[in-house]
Design brief:
Layout lengths: L12 H7 L7 H13 L5 H79 L19 H4 L4
Helix pairs in contact: 2-3
């Protein structure tokens, strides 16, 4: 029969515990040992204590393996989150710079309009329309208000 078709025989609990190889046993072997402990009747009190201790050891080993796996997963997820946060911060800074550059021409136009309005209002102090408007209402601002901006 071909080697890959043979079922690998699981080592017994006595062999694993007596040789100290229980800590190196595969999860499937640990599962089978627990299944046997849980399903077979235990004849004596001494055997019962031994089987309970073995079950506790197996459950501890499985718990430690699961904990190590969870710790590794948490570590990699933390690294991923740090990288993602750094990338997000970089893109946010870049977007802020683009918004600042985009609004620069509007601010220059606003400053030029304000300067023209102030120059106009210096010559026409009583004019009701300075060429500027209130942002809240859209009504024209009188020169008396514009001259207060200096």
């Amino acid at each position: 029969m071909l080697n890959f078709l043979k079922r690998k025989k699981f080592r017994g609990a006595n062999e694993l515990f007596s040789s100290g190889k229980i800590f190196e046993a595969k999860d499937k072997e640990l599962y089978n040992i627990l299944k046997k402990i849980a399903s077979k009747p235990i004849p004596t009190e001494t055997t019962r204590h031994r089987e309970i201790i073995r079950a506790l050891i197996i459950l501890t080993i499985k718990g430690n393996r699961d904990q190590r796996h969870a710790n590794r997963l948490n570590f990699f997820l933390s690294i991923f989150i740090i990288i993602l946060s750094t990338l997000t911060l970089k893109l946010t800074i870049e977007q802020t710079n683009y918004a600042e550059i985009q609004s620069r021409s509007d601010r220059i136009k606003e400053a030029n309009s304000r300067t023209r309005a102030i120059e106009y209002c210096k010559q026409n102090q009583d004019s009701p329309d300075s060429g500027l408007a209130y942002t809240a209402t859209g009504e024209p601002a009188p020169c008396s208000e514009v001259l207060k901006l200096k």
